[in-house]
């Protein structure tokens, strides 16, 4: 049998034994609980709060509460879950204290208006209409428009790519833009 009197034996003891001894006032048993579960509690509190200093305060407050309420813990083998619940409550209390003077709607920044569902649906509809109009356009006009507007090509580069004079590119682009203005009038 393991000797729990020595420091090494106590460090290897299961949570239920440590919790039972700590509930009876054994500070060394509680120290082992603190060393064993403190890092997880701190990581969790940091994740919730986003601040190491606040997380340290929350963990300290959690252990104070745990020490005071340990004799009331019904299931001594559930120490870690119980400590995590205490940490969670303390962190949430800390978050609430930050925002006591602000309505909940002001806690987070609003999403950009361009990401609103109605704006997203409108953008998709506009894109679908543009694709339909471009597909119905004569090939040369569509190529010129896509190369200029989507590809950023110059008139000379488009002319070289298509093997036509720059004046032809200007005419094709002019007709493509006029056609798009008429077809996309409802989306302006």
Protein model, in words:
The structure is a single chain. With 188 residues, this protein is mainly α. The chain has two domains: 7-103, Rna Polymerase Sigma Factor, Chain: A; 114-187, Arc Repressor Mutant, subunit A (Orthogonal Bundle), CATH 1.10.10.10. It is built from nine helices and no strands. It has helices at 7-11, 15-23, 27-49, 52-69, 79-98, 117-136, 139-150, 155-162, 166-183. Helix 4 crosses helix 5.
CATH topology of the largest domain: Rna Polymerase Sigma Factor, Chain: A
Q: Spell out the helices and strands N to C.
A: HHHHHHHHH
The CATH superfamily of the largest domain is identified as RNA polymerase sigma factor, region 2, helix turn helix motif
Q: What's the CATH class of the largest domain, please?
A: Mainly Alpha
The gross shape turns out to be rod-shaped
What is the number of domains?
2
Brief account:
The chain is mainly α and 188 residues long. 71% of the residues lie in helices and 0% in strands. The radius of gyration is 34 Å and the shape is rod-shaped.
Question: Topology, please?
Answer:
Elements: H1 7-11, H2 15-23, H3 27-49, H4 52-69, H5 79-98, H6 117-136, H7 139-150, H8 155-162, H9 166-183
Helix pairs in contact: 2-3, 3-4, 3-5, 4-5, 7-9, 8-9
